[in-house]
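Batch job 17 of 40 flagged for manual review because the log was empty.
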Amino acid sequence: MPETPGASRVAAAIACEGLELDYGRGSRIGPLTLEIGAGSCVALVGENGAGKSSFISMVLGLRPPTRGSLSLFGEHCHSTASRRGIGYLQESVDFPERARAQDLMALHSRLTGLDRKKTSRELEGYLDGFGLELTSKPTRAYSKGMKQRLALAIAMLDCKRMLILDEPNSGLDPVGIAMLRAKLDALKAEGTTLLISTHRLAEVMHLADRVLVLHQGKVAGASPMSEFHDFPAFEKYFLERVK
């Protein structure tokens, strides 16, 4: 199987072959054939409607592919085991208006099967990492940026194997972006696979190991980040592949 440059032949976090998703009326994602190696950090970039979120939805099992094969860490994508230890941040974030941050964190920690004895003392640490506190304030009083920080903290509760982020910087101020960058650097150092879908090329250039460009539902480019000596070169590479 052709692989994303730099991907491992031994342990692929994501491996797909001939993957397609039909929307009807002739619209289609794929076919996609690629590998993302375990422990790598890949930037998934493309124009609006390129198929980034649809690809992620297939990886997470939210949309079954029409054709092709897909596996996560060697497990079939339909198996529960394949998604253990995978955190996810969706593009649009919202919460029940009356919910508090600690209630949402506690709920998601139980859903991911975290040790209950650890939960109470760890929740505050997760929130503190994004400048949030255990408080009686409901999420309806949160700004868009605060909701994004909370969603990131929830996504990182159980991401030992892989973290998938869809537009993670949305709504974040410079302080929030710096906090996110520090968290991602730490996860990368620990060997967590990172898949980051974004329109903000500059934000991922210095974090990602490689870039995967989608255009009109197909892979238009795949390259190690080390090939680009500066941002203009990276931007040029992207623009040439989405013409």
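Reviewer: the log was empty due to a logging misconfiguration, but the result itself is present. The mean pLDDT is 88. Unflagging and moving on to job 18.
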